[in-house]
Design goal:
The complex is a heterodimer of chains A (about 325) and B (about 250).
Chain A (H helix, E strand, L loop, with lengths): L14 H11 L12 H20 L1 H8 L5 H26 L5 H9 L17 H21 L5 H29 L3 H20 L9 H8 L7 H19 L9 E3 L4 E3 L5 H11 L3 H14 L1 H21 L1
Helix pairs in contact in A: 2-4, 3-4, 4-7, 6-7, 6-8, 6-10, 7-8
Chain B lengths: L2 H21 L8 H29 L5 H7 L9 H4 L5 H22 L5 H29 L3 H14 L11 H8 L10 H14 L22 H10 L1 H5 L6
Helix pairs in contact in B: 1-2, 1-8, 2-3, 2-6, 5-6, 5-7, 5-9, 6-9
Classes of the chains: A mainly alpha (about 325), B mainly alpha (about 250).
The complex binds fe (ii) ion (3 copies).
């Protein structure tokens, strides 16, 4: 999802760890001041951090079209959406900070490549229909994962998810609305819509990560309730929900082997190219270099601003102390 | 073209062009809070554009919409101030431009809440609340960065010096302004200058910045006589889809 292939640290077998697991099994929420195993803390930092980074980098592919939005209303809706995503990043960094890592530390790890963000944001947005496809498919896939995370065991993370999910479903409806306009529009608009689906379908399926049936990491994360479903479950749910929507739009899902099965009540579908996914994760997606360069430039160019505002705040504090 | 229509396009083009400039920052701001705040300000300004240009289109009565005015006029029909079409530059230049304009915008909107045209008064009443917040924020940033480090101070002074020649146009009166003032629709821009000077002096003093000497003022934006080269490039992006696919609904 927004957090893909998050490595989970193993649990230890101390009495505290067993009592901790019992709390989780009873459905209790873990709060920042509670005792928690080191592995739980580290895994959560990786997962929440990766999710936060995804929201931040995710501003770029959509920001790419804000200055070219076709109407004032579309421009306003897109601006509001991208602003929401930055807000999601902020809530998530705050949730991560309760685990003892600062936003600046996390940011440094994003910028030097030690931490990842979702593979999906390494694909380009090439036409206005991509603003529809991103809302419909990408926010749609994000919701699949984030709705169950509202019940995750870590309190601050669960609460951040509640706020975020409301906005994400709004984004998805707005994306679908753009797709409707395009799919029912002129020949050129229909072509853009189909082209957007063609390019975003498999990368959207990749968002859930490779099959994790046999993954030890994933079993531990599920026991800790920081992962609520397997990647395959969520991917299936996404396909089952999305294919009828594509049909409603009159668009063709780019999968010749897509079949509905009455017996299972599910679609059978072609897996994305997992070697492409691994390439993207290794930094070789179409936009990895551009995305990281843009974030690094923003951070470096902004250093004097952050330093200036900090220096001013220090002067004000000193003046206040002197006056007392 | 009626004076009222011209006046309304001046209002709407200022907010459109500045809102567009701010939206160029999206995802590239120095801190996350600034990304959010810049997007929020841009969003307010685009919302105000819909109201001003919507009313302009209605007043014109030629069957054009706010979107038609935004997306299908060429640069010479734009009536925004030269100040707001200045390129973003560094964050300091963006914030200085914002502060210089916000103070003017706030004074203007405040006066417009008493307009004899109730449609204008209603739009101003809504916009003034948003702009009061913009003005507080940009002033706070100018002060913080002016009185920050040596580098941030130098950058803010450089921005102020570079933008100063674009201040005067905000307060220039022309025949349209005189007609609006005579009808009680809008204040004469020149009457806002004294209050702006007082407020700006206070902000610049706190920011430890030096108000530039000289009052040379570039003209040509609000009357459309001579925009800068930058506006055409902005429009080539902003209007591209509407121009490339005429007649499509988005
Ligand atoms: Fe989000
Ligand atoms: Fe998102
Ligand atoms: Fe979203």
């Amino acid at each position: 999802m927004y957090a893909q292939l998050v490595k989970s640290d193993a649990a230890d077998d101390s009495p505290e760890a067993r009592a901790f697991q019992a709390r989780i099994d009873r459905g209790e929420k873990i709060e920042p001041k509670d005792w928690m195993p080191d592995g739980y803390r580290k895994t959560l930092i990786r997962q929440i951090g990766q999710h936060a980074h995804s929201e931040i980098v995710g501003q770029l592919p959509e920001g790419n079209w804000i200055t070219r939005a076709p109407t004032l209303e579309r421009k306003a809706i897109l601006l509001a959406k991208v602003q929401d995503e930055a807000g999601h990043g902020l809530y998530l960094y705050c949730a991560a900070e309760t685990l003892g890592v600062s936003r600046d530390e996390l940011t440094e790890m994003l910028l030097d490549g030690r931490m990842k963000y979702s593979s999906i944001f390494n694909y380009p947005t090439l036409t206005w229909a991509d603003m529809g496809a991103v809302g419909w498919l990408v926010d749609g896939a994000a919701i699949m994962n984030q709705v169950p995370l509202q019940r995750t065991s870590y309190g601050p993370y669960a609460r951040a998810m509640v706020r975020i999910c409301k906005e994400e479903s709004f984004h998805q409806r707005q994306g679908f609305d753009i797709m409707m306009k395009m799919a029912n529009g002129t020949e050129a608009q229909r072509r853009m819509a189909q082209n957007a689906l063609d390019r975003f379908w498999y990368p959207s399926l990749m968002m859930f990560g490779p099959s994790d049936k046999d993954s030890v990491h994933s079993a531990q994360s599920m026991a800790w309730k920081i992962k609520m479903n397997t990647n395959d479950e969520l991917r299936q749910k996404f396909v089952d929900q999305t294919v009828p929507q594509a049909e409603y739009l009159g668009l063709t899902v780019p999968d010749p082997d897509l079949r509905w099965h009455d017996e299972t009540g599910h679609y059978e579908f072609t897996q994305p190219d997992w070697s492409e996914f691994m390439d993207v994760l290794r930094g070789n997606g179409p936009c990895n270099a551009d995305r990281l360069a843009a974030r690094n430039k923003a951070w470096d160019d902004g250093a004097w601003v952050r330093e200036g505002l900090m220096a001013h705040a220090d002067k004000k504090r000193a003046a206040k102390v002197a006056a007392e | 073209m009626s004076d009222l229509f011209t006046f309304l396009t001046r209002m709407g083009d200022n907010t459109l062009v500045l809102g567009h400039r701010l939206s160029e920052w999206c995802g590239h701001a120095p801190v996350l809070e600034e990304d959010i705040a810049l997007a929020n300000t841009a969003l307010d300004l685009i919302g105000q554009t819909q109201m001003w240009l919507g009313l302009a289109a209605q007043v014109e009565g030629a069957g054009r919409s706010a979107d038609d005015l935004a997306m299908l006029r060429d640069a010479w029909d734009f009536r925004n101030l030269l100040l707001v079409e200045r390129p973003n530059g560094d964050f300091g230049a963006t914030i200085m431009r914002q502060c210089l304009f916000d103070r003017f915008h706030l004074l203007l909107l405040d006066a417009l809440t008493h307009s004899t045209d109730t449609r204008i008064a209603a739009i101003a009443a809504k916009a003034v609340k948003e702009v009061r917040y913009h003005a507080d924020r940009s002033a706070e940033l100018v002060i913080g960065l002016g009185d920050g480090t040596a580098e941030s101070h130098t950058r803010m002074q450089t921005a102020l010096d570079a933008l100063w020649p674009y201040v005067g146009e905000m307060f220039t009166d022309d025949a349209t302004d005189t007609a609006m003032a005579a009808a009680g629709i809008a204040p004469l821009p020149s009457t806002l200058r004294a209050a702006w000077d007082t407020q700006m002096t206070d902000i610049l003093t706190q920011a430890t910045l030096t108000r530039p000497d000289g009052d040379f003022a570039h003209q040509g934006g609000k009357n459309g006589a001579q925009h800068s080269e930058h506006l055409g490039h902005m429009l080539s992006q902003m209007q591209w889809l509407q121009r490339a696919y005429p007649g499509a609904t988005w």
